[in-house]
């Protein structure tokens, strides 16, 4: 448990859920994965990027062997998308009615494996003490329709929708419902146009589907005030439907604009789109919300105008996620789904991958990962490197290519965050890009504060090798924390910065939690130099071509200024080696025989610290 990232990304097969899938047919597709098929580039195909529904629930590996887990075909269309939720018990109790309280997730399997329900219930009982009867029934029956009778479809939303709004024509349709234009019938806003997403209750056939609607509204309601996010107004319900009232976006879907342009954008036009997408996604991530369904259909323009503002919509698959938490249900749309989602261990980075897919499509008009079947697409996502050699790529800027490549890095720890992407040289000087606060820095500072003095010295040395480009981002983040006159930040500055940026989504719990995790800062201050050491990501630097140079250079600095004879126990605890491991044998390579100090290899290991071994918290 908890070693989601323990497997090197070079051997995805090891944990690849598709690896046991029937392969015969796909073998022939191997070659076609690389080929772009323009004929497929139409809306139909895009719509076929159906919600991922892989009905495999994993129980704690230590207690139950995961049963054979072939990738079942996607439901198409279907609201069923998620799995048995593996949130931690503490999250469940702290979160109250939030996503943490999502019912146990397991659904209809097209080919049910030998009933896993027993194991799941046993695991749940162990984790939560007991399982509510109707939830257990869902698990046991695999979502049999009979369970519908017991579902509570009241949401506590306002009544009287029809008295308040005059419904106009349908403007869009999805798997779960349809969207209409509407107008206020009376009152101050009489005549004003809004959009109404109508979700029929008849379509909510599982507890999960109901919970998803609840969460969609909850997230929309709490995430207010960003200019690239559709403005939520209200939610209503009656016996038949749920109605989500929001700002009306007249300009249509981003997908339609891409298609009407024949798929290709100039770099500047692509930047204009990317800045808006990254801005709203960075905002969501700071608030602790992961969208999980980013694709060109889910961005709307406010007007038909060429330069119209873009708005993110459809939080139907979104969820709350804390900085160190990992989600495990496989949701999203095939073309846009991140590799770590397929590995069922992911966080906000998964959204950034989807943005990388959108960026790739904008710049070259083709999909980076393509195959005829869903499992073929997954194989490509997990293994194939997108093509950057065919036209138009050779004629695009080096920065543009680097930008897309760094969004499509398979290892989520190495991938840029949304805020970092806004600091990337390709985009950072475009118009008036403002880089928002990045939730990643808090995660990194937390790990830094918990490190030994030896590791801190190693990070300090590494931070001295950062280039102007890398410092650009850190300077921006430091400035956002509004250092005091002495050039230092304290816990108070962080608190202020978070409070300033917080919506209800974050207010619910996260600010407090973040601050508690940084409490080691309480009696001290941090200047910019130390901030750089604390907030740099070793994993991300490792993804750079010049990493070796960075590391060598840092080691030399460390030699002069921090290397000392190693106390084995200190190192062992820093690296999270269990007492049963014969420490001396393991550390042999990391220590120089001549003087007992850290070797280069040991230095690099130390830079990673425990974080590389237990990045995700065991739950
Ligand atoms: N605020 C809005 N203004 C105008 N049109 C909208 C608005 N919200 C949604 N639409 C239209 O309705 C379509 C469906 O909305 P949405 O994606 O929220 O529904 P869904 O049922 O969750 O769809 P999906 O099948 O993608 O999950 C959108 O693609 C868009 O065309
Ligand atoms: Ca749609
Ligand atoms: Ca949608
Ligand atoms: Ca949706």
TrEMBL record:
Residues where ATP binds: 197
InterPro entries reported for this sequence: CDPK_Ser/Thr_kinases, EF-hand-dom_pair, Kinase-like_dom_sf, Prot_kinase_dom, Protein_kinase_ATP_BS, Ser/Thr_kinase_AS
Biased composition (Acidic residues): 27-42
Chain intervals for the UniProt region annotation (Disordered): 1-46
Protein kinase domain location: 165-427
UniProt KW keywords: ATP-binding, Kinase, Nucleotide-binding, Repeat, Serine/threonine-protein kinase, Transferase
Superkingdom: Eukaryota
One family name in Pfam for this protein: Pkinase
Residue stretches in coiled coil: none
An annotated Gene Ontology molecular function: protein serine/threonine kinase activity
Entry-linked CDD domains: STKc_CAMK (cd05117)
Biased segments, Polar residues type: 8-21
PANTHER family per the UniProt record, alphabetical: SERINE/THREONINE-PROTEIN KINASE
Entry protein name: CDPK-related protein kinase
Organism encoding this protein: Ananas comosus (Pineapple)
């Amino acid at each position: 448990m908890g070693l989601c990232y323990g497997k090197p990304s070079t051997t995805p097969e090891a944990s690849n859920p598709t690896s046991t899938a029937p392969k015969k047919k796909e073998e022939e597709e191997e070659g076609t994965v690389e080929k772009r098929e323009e004929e497929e580039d139409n809306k139909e195909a895009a719509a076929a990027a159906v919600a991922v529904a892989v009905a495999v629930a994993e129980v704690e590996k230590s207690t139950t062997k995961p049963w054979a887990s072939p990738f079942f075909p996607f439901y198409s269309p279907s609201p069923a998308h998620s799995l048995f939720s593996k949130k931690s018990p503490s999250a469940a109790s702290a979160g109250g009615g939030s996503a943490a309280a999502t019912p146990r997730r397991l659904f209809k399997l097209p080919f049910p494996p030998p009933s896993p329900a027993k194991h799941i219930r046993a695991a749940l009982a162990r984790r939560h003490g007991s399982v509510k009867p109707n939830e257990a029934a869902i698990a046991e029956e695999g979502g049999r329709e009979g369970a519908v009778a017991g579902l509570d479809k009241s949401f506590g939303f306002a009544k009287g929708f029809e008295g308040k709004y005059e419904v106009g024509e349908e403007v869009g349709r999805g798997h779960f419902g349809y969207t209409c234009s509407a107008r206020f019938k009376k009152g101050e806003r009489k005549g004003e146009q809004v959009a109404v997403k109508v979700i029929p209750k008849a379509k909510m056939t599982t507890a999960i589907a109901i919970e998803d609607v609840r969460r969609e509204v909850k997230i929309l309601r709490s995430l207010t005030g960003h200019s690239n996010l559709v403005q939520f107004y209200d939610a209503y319900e009656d016996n038949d439907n749920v109605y989500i009232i929001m700002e009306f976006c007249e300009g249509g879907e981003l997908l339609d604009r891409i298609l009407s342009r024949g798929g290709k954008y100039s770099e500047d036009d692509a930047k204009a789109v990317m800045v808006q997408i990254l801005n709203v996604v960075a905002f969501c991530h700071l608030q602790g919300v992961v969208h999980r369904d980013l694709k060109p259909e889910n961005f709307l323009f406010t007007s038909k105008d060429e330069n119209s503002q873009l708005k993110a919509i459809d939080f139907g698959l979104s969820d709350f996620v804390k900085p160190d938490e990992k989600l495990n249900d496989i949701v999203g749309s095939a073309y846009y789904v991140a590799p770590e989602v397929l590995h069922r261990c992911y966080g906000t980075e998964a959204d950034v991958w989807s943005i990388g897919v959108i960026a790739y499509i904008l710049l070259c008009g083709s999909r980076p990962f393509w195959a005829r079947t869903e499992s073929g697409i997954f194989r490509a996502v997990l293994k194939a490197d997108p093509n950057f050699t065919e036209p138009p790529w050779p004629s695009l800027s080096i920065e543009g290519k680097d930008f897309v490549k760094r969004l499509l890095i398979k290892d989520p720890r190495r991938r840029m965050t949304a805020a970092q992407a806004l600091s990337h040289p390709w985009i950072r000087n475009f118009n008036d890009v403002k880089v928002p606060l990045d939730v990643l820095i808090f995660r990194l500072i937390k790990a830094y504060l918990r490190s030994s003095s030896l590791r801190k010295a190693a990070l300090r040395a590494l931070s001295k090798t950062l280039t102007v480009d890398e410092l650009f981002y850190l300077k921006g983040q430091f400035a956002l924390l509004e250092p005091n006159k002495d050039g230092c930040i304290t816990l108070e500055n962080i608190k202020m910065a978070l409070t300033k940026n917080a919506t209800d989504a974050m207010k619910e719990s996260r600010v407090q939690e973040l601050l508690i995790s940084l409490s080691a800062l309480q009696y001290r201050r941090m200047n910019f130099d130390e901030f750089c050491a604390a907030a740099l990501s070793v994993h991300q630097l490792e993804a750079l071509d010049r990493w070796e140079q960075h590391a060598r250079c840092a080691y030399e600095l460390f030699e002069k200024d921090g290397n000392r004879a190693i106390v084995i126990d200190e190192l062992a605890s820093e690296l999270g080696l269990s007492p049963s491991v014969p420490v001396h044998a393991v550390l042999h390579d990391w220590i120089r025989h001549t003087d007992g100090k850290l070797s280069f290899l040991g230095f690099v290991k130390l830079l990673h610290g425990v974080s590389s071994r237990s990045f995700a918290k065991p739950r």
